[in-house]
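Example (one chain per record):
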Amino acid sequence: MRHVFLVAFCAAGALALSGCQRPGEADVDRAIQDVLSGDESAMNDIMMNVADPGEAVSYFRRGLEGQPENIALQRGLAQSLLRAGRNTEAVGAWARVTNHPEATAEDRVTHADALIRVGEWKKAEAVLHAIPPTHETYRRYRLEAMVADANKQWAKADSFYETAAGLTTRPSGVLNNWGYSKLTRGDFKGAERLFTEAITYDPSLFTAKNNLVLARGAQRNYDLPVVRMTPTERAQLYHTLALTAIKQGDVGIGKGLLQEAIDAHPQYFEPAVRALEALEARG
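Predicted structure:
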């Protein structure tokens, strides 16, 4: 209804202006255009952030047919392609955004993010290195850490992860990533500490809970950590511990943990049942 009212209002204004131009009418015209511009910006934000990703892609593509150089529409399309999981297309779309004269440093950060999603680590690194060092944001340093990880530059990765964690009030995700980096390096105690910290910021983050169990299991600590968990999560964590124990040759412990997983799950836990049956069949 708001759009209809505005269009009607503008049409009426145009008709009035065609007859004569009274003092102040130019200001009214500008005010109307400001309202329309703000309305379009709000719609772009809605489509880019909360609308169905497929519908958003169609919306921005239609807009670009009439305004191919509009960076807001280019940015909206690129972000919507990322949300839709169409990462290869998103890389090209973000490249077009970053070639626009009005592109920002944050646009380049998101371009690097898209490149990482398709495994183009070297290109992502080049994009990040071209961003001025004065652009210090959580997203930039999180990606810098991931690139350093990929290059096995552990000291740089640790420095970037620490900086990123300090630039956000919700560091659970980056702490979990940092912990996983430590886990892959074999620093199990360091990983355990970071996963535990991640969970303190977000007790619902199951990925960190599962990774914490992996880090403890790698040290042959097969007790569940004292963290908040649902019955289903408890069963899944027992299952993870069981597989870790079996992989390390602690088959008897693994069998017991599989039984714990089966008993803890509120429903039939088929993966744990199959694993236990296979072990028992082997004797």
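Caption: Residues 1-23, 31-38 have pLDDT under 50 and may be disordered.
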